[in-house]
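Exercise 7b. Backbone tokens:
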């Protein structure tokens, strides 16, 4: 509930984004774009089936071939063969920006045998029922069992590697009972798995965001790889690194920059209310629910714009969100930051190339029973 403060009621500005084309057709990035985004195939790319694809943050990271804040994220050897999500708008955003392989569908009823066979399966299965900001109902919730669609695909097609993404709360909810069940189901499907807890600022994000990545490798192939090496151990990039240049942009000179919700001041609320970001620090975690924990600019008297949230999630500026603010914010907040996804995908590409050379990891330093004790569930960095 929003505290009664006498502040103006929030409402979405009617501004709609102005754009000619999405990321895939933008002439500015044709020099570095992945062949998939141009309707072609990477000649030596590994096939990827994408589930719960949303607007495509995880998928863009897997493909690579984009720039973010002047840095280039190289093309990776993957081809996405199909991407499915139940949300029609998310798929429209996906197909506008990434490629036409996005399809609307309910994964709880799709027969996995009707989906294409791929070497890799990726999916950020819905997390609201596990999230610390959600109802915490776990498997009892409608969305708590959606991971089973991934398990069913694994049983049907036996992909080599599976990457599942979720919130860190999944590991602690009911003392880890849900995560243990998921890992047990993965084991029963014939896979070894490991859980990486990744703090996104260590990979260059200016936002406090932590995610669990479940990596499963088919048993005959050995054990999963270790997490990608952090690049920013000596200091994080603060919020202004990502959005300072947008301070004076009030129009659509950069798409989605004129889109935000009206409310001039942040309310204080002991962690539950609205948050004003602070210069020199990481932004608060960008959430899918635009009504919860509203984020305000660190120096301007307004909320963050859709583009600023997209920047804080590391979407390139050419990636267009074509809807009204609420819908765009949901897609952005749901996404895996593309630069984090790129770090994950680079590690997976190295690992598959190692497998292709006939090498395998025969022993993992972790076993299934270690998950409760693993220090990575209690890392020192706090999410805000
Ligand atoms: C956490 S988001 C995934 C975000 C995505 N990985 C990204 O990086 O942009 C979860 C997605 O699952 C989708 N979803 C929920 N239930 C679904 C279902 N039954 N079938 C297909 N997709 C579903 C939601 O619409 C949402 O886009």
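Sequence design result:
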């Amino acid at each position: 509930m929003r505290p009664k403060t006498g502040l103006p009621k929030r409402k979405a500005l009617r501004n709609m984004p102005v754009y000619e084309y999405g990321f895939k057709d933008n002439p500015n990035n044709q020099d570095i774009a992945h062949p998939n985004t141009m309707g072609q195939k990477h000649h030596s790319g590994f096939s990827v089936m994408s589930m719960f694809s949303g607007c495509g943050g995880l998928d863009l990271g897997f493909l690579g071939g984009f720039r973010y804040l002047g840095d280039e994220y190289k093309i990776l050897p993957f081809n996405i063969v199909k991407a499915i999500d139940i949300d029609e708008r998310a798929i429209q955003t996906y197909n506008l920006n990434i490629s036409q392989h996005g399809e609307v569908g309910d994964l709880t009823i799709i027969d996995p045998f009707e989906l294409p066979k791929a070497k890799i399966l990726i999916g950020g299965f819905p997390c609201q029922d596990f999230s610390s900001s959600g109802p915490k109902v776990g498997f009892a919730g409608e969305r708590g069992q959606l991971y089973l669609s991934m398990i069913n695909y694994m049983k049907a097609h036996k992909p080599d590697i599976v990457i599942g993404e979720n919130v860190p709360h999944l590991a602690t909810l009911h003392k880890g009972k849900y995560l243990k069940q998921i890992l047990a189901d993965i084991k029963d499907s014939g896979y070894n798995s490991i859980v990486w807890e990744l703090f996104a600022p260590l990979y260059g994000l200016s936002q406090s965001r932590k995610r669990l990545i479940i990596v499963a490798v088919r048993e005959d192939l050995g054990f999963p790889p270790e997490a990608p090496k952090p690049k920013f151990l000596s200091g994080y990039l603060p919020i202004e690194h990502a959005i300072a240049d947008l301070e004076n942009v009030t129009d659509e000179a950069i798409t989605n920059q004129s889109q935000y919700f009206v409310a001039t001041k942040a309310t204080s609320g002991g962690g539950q209310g609205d948050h004003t970001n602070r210069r020199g620090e990481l932004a608060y975690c960008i959430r899918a629910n635009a009504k919860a924990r509203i984020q305000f600019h660190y120096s301007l008297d307004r909320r963050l714009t859709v583009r600023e949230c997209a920047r804080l999630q590391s979407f390139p500026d050419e990636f267009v969100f074509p809807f009204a603010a609420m819908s765009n914010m949901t897609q952005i907040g749901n996404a895996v930051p593309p630069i984090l996804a790129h770090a994950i995908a680079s590690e997976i590409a190295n690992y598959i190339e190692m497998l292709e050379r006939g090498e395998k990891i025969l022993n993992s330093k972790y076993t299934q029973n270690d998950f409760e004790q693993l220090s990575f569930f209690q890392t020192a960095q706090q999410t805000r």
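Instructor comment: The chain is about 20% helix and 15% strand. The longest helix spans residues 338-356.
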